[in-house]
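Form P-L/3: holo structure prediction, ligand zinc ion.
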Amino acid sequence: MQDIVKLIAGFRQFQKNYFRGDSELFSQLKVGQQPKTLVIGCSDSRVDPSLLTGADPGDLFIIRNVANLVPPYEPDAGYHGVSAALEYAVCQLQVEHIIVLGHSQCGGIAGLMSSDCDCQVGEFIGKWVSLAEPAKLRVQEELAGKSEQLQTRACEQAAIMLSLDNLLSFPWLQQRVEAQALSLHGWYFDIQRGELLRYSPEAEGYVTLVPGTNP
Ligand SMILES: [Zn+2]
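OUTPUT (holo model):
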């Protein structure tokens, strides 16, 4: 119950910050939203995109799911929650940036790395994270014989690249990228080091965006 009490007190603080006194931001947001950036992040409680980037309400349109994965374009009769949010962000809100935000110690990727294809995790999780199976197979081939820890980290990063590729399978998204109206970014938050990395196509790997606080 203490957890819920803390959250209600948190809402009072939010209300005080944004609805009393200086309410200029929400006087605009009451009318509508115009976020310029879509973040696709993990559901992990430690990786809150708004908190990590100091974003204000209205700044980020956010999709969160297990292991921050983007499925490929599949216009069929299925229920495609991620694709629906993606469509809204790109076609209606016309965001200018999409950030796929991965992270270290990702439970979804750890589950994928530790399972074999015959042993799926849970009713839904195993099937969902199997989207990143190509990243897993690539890492296992490239880093054969390396430690599990190293392979898992590499898979977390490769899965971000896979999601960036899958984003481009959506034709209306690819069109906007080609027209330079939309930029794609792959970011990796290293929880242990408090560091932010980004995928660099030029370097064909991850480079530091914000150095960590720990050596
Ligand atoms: Zn995660």
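COMMENT: The two ends are 38 Å apart (CA to CA).
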